[in-house]
What does this fold into?
Amino acid sequence: MTTATAPPGRPGTGAGGVREWARRRPATHLALRAAVLLVGSALVAVGAVMLVLPGPGWAVILLGLVVLASEFAWAQRRLEPLRRFAERGVGVIRERPGGPAILKGLVVAGCLSLVAGAAIAVSTLT
It folds into this structure.
């Protein structure tokens, strides 16, 4: 079995390949970091607004931190305690009878609340 590799000078597949390609070019890397900063900061700001308006504010803030952590070490450090807390919680739920079904239900409920909260926030702002 052979693995496919990207041609030289071309980005690899997935976000990691694009990131490595961009890091080899200073201007592209700066643009990538600026885009990540812009998108992550916008998500955190929208999440902060959703703390007062209807919507899943904390979830959007967390998503913004995840985006920021993809490029910035300070955001990774902020997420590390939350990651450990989530891993412990998932471990506890997995050990319970019916744990995987509970986890799937929580993921579906979280996704639905994000979509519903975003729809409510958009309709409130317009």
Remarks:
- Residues 14-125 form one domain.
- Residues 1-6 have pLDDT under 50 and may be disordered.
- The two ends are 54 Å apart (CA to CA).
- The first helix runs from residue 14 to 23.
